[in-house]
Amino acid sequence: MSADLDAQFAFLNEADRLKSVLRATTLCDGSRRENSGEHSWHLALYAMVLEGQAAPGVDINRVIRMLLIHDLVEIDVGDVPIHSANGLAHASADTMAAEKRAADRIFGLLPQDLAVAFRALWDEFEAAETPDAVFAKSLDRVQPVMANLQSGGGTWVTYDVTYDQLESRVGVKVARGAPQLWEWVRAKARLWFA
Q: What's the sign of the alpha-carbon dihedral 7, 130, 188, 161?
């Protein structure tokens, strides 16, 4: 038991570092950049509140679990904004490889059974092939959009984002897991870009 608790708290203490990773996205009031810990918490709340937007059969508790751990790799890699480097950095081979190394290290701090379970959940989120992961990924994409709308454009201004880029980089993924939600958000985004 002592070895398991040592490992569990090693992981939890390491996870605390996520609070120090600043994201490009600001808080809704635009007062400062959010940190990745705040982002993960906010996404878990998004899942609870927007559960009705999920496809039938989506397990919202699994979605919440995914969202709580999905960005732990940013402890090592940092935030790679979806619109940075003209949209090329976020899903680049280098970024994906760095995130996999970070997942190995961070989840490897846990006792074996938890390490395997958490890593599988993270891999599922990254692949975005299961209904749970597709919905989780949709929420991960829509939350920064809502923050940008509330803060007067936020990272859209910073990265000179066009409406077409928003649609191709974000909208497609949101619509895949929450089509009605994207229709509602799209109408608001169109007004901002008009």
A: positive
